[in-house]
Amino acid sequence: MAKCSLCGAPAVAEVRYARLRLCREHFLEFVERKVERAVREHHMIRRGEKVVAAISGGKDSATLAGVLARLRERLGFGLVLAHIDLGIGEYSVRSRRASERLADELGLPLLVLSVEELLGDGVPRLAMKARRPACSVCGIVKRYLLNALAIEARADRVATGHNADDIAAYALKAFLTQNLEDLRKQKPATPSIEGLAVSRVKPLYSVYEKESYLYALLRGLPFYHEECPHARLTSLDFHLKEMINKLESRHPGIKLQLVRGLARNADRYPGEDWEPVPCRHCGLISYGGECSFCRLTSRVKGEPLGGKVRGKIRSLIEGSHI
Ligand code: AMP
Ligand code: ZN
Ligand code: ZN
């Protein structure tokens, strides 16, 4: 049996790009150090700040919350979890349950926002009414609700569980389609814009998907291991991930080189042509005066619902201990 390169105990993982075999303890430490280094290097979280970790119920969210819960003492920040119940049938029921179990396990406060309760329809029905792909509607709704929640909770950061595989695939897609503004969006930390948008950080940006999976497993963190039923195995994103992993197996470390390089260079790619301004309906970030959430809800519900939704989130927060 292979042995840990550091202590000689039985190895549970091989990290080829670092030429290491690691036992359970050293693997956990390896991932935690990688995340801590990312957080410090990119100034993702400062002492005394309040962080909302967005958790979907999946493995990356479990690892994100698990590692941040360990780092928060040393780095001195506050941590709360937020889950969006998207209303996608059984998938959402199980994802929500996994998020609740994760919060219990880690002893962290959790705020759940239900799209059905806030808007009267779940994501699939909203998408059908809007005649748009479910994933694009889902993206708009998630981004808006997480930002609104962070603004109302007076949080300094929204942390997401995007891993190196997600970012590498996204970056290649942006290059292939020449949407170069999307490369800039892959920065590990974006700044807050006072009153409009809360800073977003990606502490797992250099953690490989399989490392994140193994971390959650070895720590015994609860997660729901299913893809969203709307995710298609024929999509470009899926093929790009496959391709990058094939490359990685022949050229260990290429994925890490891409995500770390992108983190350094993201600012050199073109940004949006428009300045962010407050949405005229809800006051949160928009490019051009109407945010995509208010535009979507106007179309589907007959009125822009950003303002009302912010009010509901505010009351939910006041009734919780977040
Ligand atoms: P995905 O776009 O599904 O790959 O998710 C990327 C990241 O977005 C996750 O790691 C979470 O941090 C966040 N996220 C995705 N879905 C949800 C959700 N339903 N509730 C809260 N955060 C989510
Ligand atoms: Zn060891
Ligand atoms: Zn709006």
- The helix-and-strand class reads alpha/beta
* Unique bound compounds: adenosine monophosphate, zinc ion
Q: Indicate how many domains the architecture comprises.
A: 1
How many strands, which pairing sense, and closed or not: the largest β-sheet? Answer: 6 strands, mixed
Provide the spatial order of strands within the biggest beta sheet: 5-4-3-6-8-7
CATH fold label = Rossmann fold
Q: Please tally the helical runs, counting DSSP H or I stretches of 4 or more residues.
A: 13
Strand content: 5-15%
CATH superfamily descriptor: HUPs
Characterize the overall form: globular
Question: Care to count the β-strands?
Answer: 10
The run of helices and strands is EEHEHEHEHHHEHHEEHHHEEHH
* Mean pLDDT over the residues: 96
Counting copies of identical and different chains, the oligomeric state is single chain
Distance between the termini: 47 Å
Question: Which residues sit in consecutive blocks of at least 5 with pLDDT less than 50?
Answer: none
CATH class: Alpha Beta
Q: What is the annotated CATH architecture?
A: 3-Layer(aba) Sandwich
